[in-house]
């Protein structure tokens, strides 16, 4: 296995009594699109600022290409940061903003001009090169910020909530464009986000941070399908939790009905657990499914692509959420108050300790 | 009282207030163009009192001194005040003790500051002259420049400083290429304010000046002239000083009102 591009070993950052980052160990590989995902206060921004050089770890090491950079100041790292607020220089034009980082490297003027022109066409802003940042839309400013960091061809590009300020539609387009640009340039991207959907769509690998520690790290599919615990399951996507008890190799739900599920080996009879199933794994009817239950429709939400049903059941005090594709919902004139039966298979059930 | 009569009363008070403010200045302005120069009768329009100023070598040398003091103290106060403002804003969390210290020269009565500076210079056994006036004017101007620049720094986006560092700039390059250009309107505004304050400052200059004519500034010159009565030349001189101050102040306020580029 080749040496990782970036290797974090036991990184800790304390601010007085507060442990913002608490023993994070992580390898990130060349050309990877990596997402640090966490709620606010999870330590993801502090971790990013340590990678950029704006914070120095209290302990632990940050190896970039095998060299410890944890004490190297930001202006001497082959790492660039795209700021959440974009932090464009308000008194400089788009082209001057992009050229700034290259001028700091004291490159010849001709090379600077050439690289700036290339970057302007990559971010599709060549026609606005002479504009000042305040004359641009939010999406255009975002691309200038990206271009300004990217033009330096860093070993590592850090992006702090890159799409946070954009409206939903534009965010969707930019997610794909970021992925495309990352692919074209072959630069390793680390993006910090609190938006799980953004992480799932863009990243090759995701690390979930909680209270300054690494909770789970894996591919989007791993993270979504096999969350490591109840928190991760709840944080990523939507999950139905059914309180149950382990009973002779199976689960017994709140109302006494049985739930079949693959049980982790360390559970013994009598343990209280949560059975969990994703809304899209529930199917209508499905009398032949491993697990089956009926409930009454409490509310419905039509999303075009799919239909969400909230069912009152005897399994949980929380309504059970069912997500039906447009196809599956076709021909069912659902009504609030109607009783429906849903089923799901044992292998789609996850079991978490409480 | 009806609405109509209350409106009339307000208009009356407003005009009385403005009359109180501007009639003396208007009289001064008019008299400076009065051919006879006497406040008793208007004998026709003339600019010869302005011409007389130019031939008065005492006034000319005092004017030159004032310009030297104003320009030099403005320059040094602007540089130091701006750096101070940036430094204080970066470390703002340290509390208000420093803040009070910075504003003190603005609040302390001029006469107190004048005496303090005079005692200080005497204690140092410093020879008094134009240079001591310059130092003294730098002291209070520094506080004003700092206040103006800090007001602008309150909504300064500090992330551009980090962005500059991130892109490879050293602290001094960041200062020169990012912080100063963005603060420029506030710095210029502070400088013009300082210039205005210095031009018509009398008390501190009077206390810290040296003996002889070498360190007489314009306000001091005017003061010494009116001891023998208000001459028409003084009217003309006062109008010129006032015009310069008003123009500088107007530009200063205009710059300060102008928004930061990009905001």
From TrEMBL, chain A:
Listed Pfam families: ABC_tran, TOBE_2
Residues in ABC transporter domain copies: 6-236
Protein origin, superkingdom: Bacteria
Gene Ontology MF, one: ATP binding
SUPFAM superfamilies: MOP-like, P-loop containing nucleoside triphosphate hydrolases
Catalysed reactions listed for this entry: ATP + H2O + polyamine-[polyamine-binding protein]Side 1 = ADP + phosphate + polyamineSide 2 + [polyamine-binding protein]Side 1
This protein's UniProt keywords: ATP-binding, Cell membrane, Membrane, Nucleotide-binding, Translocase, Transport
InterPro entries assigned: AAA+_ATPase, ABC_SmlMolc_Importer, ABC_transporter-like_ATP-bd, ABC_transporter-like_CS, Mo/tungstate-bd_C_term_dom, NA-bd_OB-fold, P-loop_NTPase, PotA-like
Enzyme Commission number: 7.6.2.11
Family annotation (Gene3D superfamilies): 2.40.50.100, Nucleic acid-binding proteins, P-loop containing nucleotide triphosphate hydrolases
Its job: Part of the ABC transporter complex PotABCD involved in spermidine/putrescine import. Responsible for energy coupling to the transport system.
Subunit structure comment from the entry: The complex is composed of two ATP-binding proteins (PotA), two transmembrane proteins (PotB and PotC) and a solute-binding protein (PotD).
Family listed: Belongs to the ABC transporter superfamily. Spermidine/putrescine importer (TC 3.A.1.11.1) family.
Name of the featured protein: Spermidine/putrescine import ATP-binding protein PotA
TrEMBL record, chain B:
Family note: Belongs to the binding-protein-dependent transport system permease family. CysTW subfamily.
Location, primary (coarse class): membrane
Record protein name field: ABC transporter permease
Subcellular locations according to the entry: Cell membrane
Protein topology in the membrane: Multi-pass membrane protein
Domain of life (superkingdom): Bacteria
Keywords in alphabetical order: Cell membrane, Membrane, Transmembrane, Transmembrane helix, Transport
PROSITE patterns per record: ABC_TM1
Pfam hit, one: BPD_transp_1
UniProt domain ABC transmembrane type-1: residue ranges: 63-252
Matching SUPFAM superfamilies: MetI-like
Organism, scientific name: Franzmannia qiaohouensis
Transmembrane region(s): 12-33, 67-88, 100-122, 128-149, 178-199, 234-251
